Amino acid sequence: MVRDREGGVLDDVLLTAFPGPHSYTGEDVVEISCHGGVLVTQRVLERLLECGARGAEAGEFSLQAFLNGKMDLTQAEAVMDVISAQTELALKAAQHQLSGRIGEATEGLRGDLLEIVAQVEASIDFPEEDIDPETGAGLLRRLEDCGGRIAALLATAEQGRILREGVRTVIYGEPNVGKSSLLNVLLGYERAIVSEQAGTTRDTVEEVVNIGGIPVRLIDTAGMREATDDIERRGVERTRKHLAEADLILEVVDVGASQGVMLGEEQCKNAHRLLVLNKCDLARHADWIGAEGVAVSCVEETGMEELTAAIQEELALGATSWGQEAVAVNARHQDCLRRAGRALEVAREQLAHAASPEFAAVDLRIAMEAIGEVAGKVETEELLGEIFGRFCIGK
Fold it and tell me: 235, 201 in Cβ contact below 8 A?
């Protein structure tokens, strides 16, 4: 029972004790479960603060769990990925990371590199014990194997970005071709204002839809035309910016009207592109007869299954390509792995060309330390502050 300072009852609560080191943080922890409701929770929390408790910092519990050896840095980061996962595949990838997959992979790499460093440094300390050619060739094979494992982890970075952020999908086209209508139909509810008046969409509208287990971030943009005022001009500028950053462009056209100005190859060079032939319930203009694209009608809501299937095929989002056991590294892991890969390649070249082993040893240690940063084996206060500062308060 929690009482206020005058002795009045605030709530009947349940206390659950988690003695260390078996708690989430590895420390002695007590959880207070009170009855639901914002007011009751707020009153109990205020009373605890009055009695000397303090509010937890962002990510403080996960930080303590990391510092107390309950999880490595990749697992701590996965806590937020689990919380923010928007699809089943994203959740599975986060859970694999939470179980320690990335940490295990990088620790295995670090262990192998440690053995290689020890062998190279032993040849420096004991020059009379020359590494014979067979041993030297074996050393190079081991370095190549480590490089291949780093490359395999780096190959998952794009999948990781998409699972965490979604496929950046720009809905593009001239005014009144049905861009906002397409957004609303794909979402299943009216998110954007639809009007026959050209230029209704002045700013971008973003929402996430689940397609094949992958979060697809739909971005409805202002219609491309000669702007009539400053607000519309800024909307068109934002459209161009989103086009440059897009993973996928859905170029929407009105098949009942003549063909206008289409996107050029230069505008689509960094993105996949699908032509969406909207208003297929109406008679086709001669310009669109025989055109290759996905035929839809936003009014009758037809062709949407074909469109989502085309998106999956265009982006190779099938379950077999993504897999059920995927380990997807994030941007921080990617940076560490790239630094390790570069250092490893330099060391391999030095050993292959019989350069001084001292130089190879330096680069091998750089690679080993960069790999260690992934799981937090070589951590700094600044690095920890950057990572845990993005967490929910307390988590």
Answer: yes
